[in-house]
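Just wondering, does anyone understand what follows?

——
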Amino acid sequence: MSFGDLTRISTNVQALQANASLQKTNQNIGMRQLRLATGSQLNRAEDDSAGYSISKKLEARVRGQAQALANIGDAKSMLTVAEGSLNSVMDILQTMKEKAVQAGNDTMGDDEREAISSQITALSAEIGDIVGGATFNGNDLLDGTAFTFQVGSDSGDTFESEGYDASGIMTAINAVASITDADSAETALTAIDGQIDAVAGLLADIGDDQKRLSFKQDNLQVAMTNYEAARSRINDADFAKEQMELIKLQILQQTGTAALAQANAAPQAVLSLF
């Protein structure tokens, strides 16, 4: 550090040094105040280029994971729609089974069996409406189409369902002949039981996919928390530390201002030589 000769007044080295120190203190105060205002200790790349880069990468991953969580929620909602439709179909099939069992009893006459057949026909038509109307954002849910869900923030982090094909239900139910006697009622009952088993299998498949999505959701939430903690350690400001440093710098600002004033006044001592 240079020291000036107070008898040389053209260049006041002490004042220059005091001013440089004061400017540095003012810059540090501005930086600390910015950190307190933003809550971040890395507001510019020059603050810590490596830390800034790592922080931005972690932030991108966390934001991608947040969207993946939303995707999983949407996927589960879609599967819930499919599940609800199949539950309605199951209720109808169980009603049809009851009617087929009723028609198999010889206490029923021709008119009664004809009424039961008419009801079963109407119920089968309703099954067709439910299966055809099971859609989500324009996607048919029960035609066997496989779905791919993005469940992570990286390429390839996907989950694929094999699809849920309920189209065979209508084919089997429509093949049931009119119930006219105990034998035709038995045939109808066999066909209905087969479709009850098929729908139960589809519901089990949906349940398995929902459970896997729930596991992925839980795992993703844990990962998000860990990545957010890592980003926080690099990027977030420690308010207690920043406030402590700010108080110290404010004191240095006051002493630096006083030192600059004294350094500016020092050359006046030369006048005593005259």
User: Anything to note?
Assistant: The beta strands are 135-136, 139-140, 147-150, 158-161. The helical segments are 13-38, 49-103, 110-133, 167-174, 182-235, 239-265.
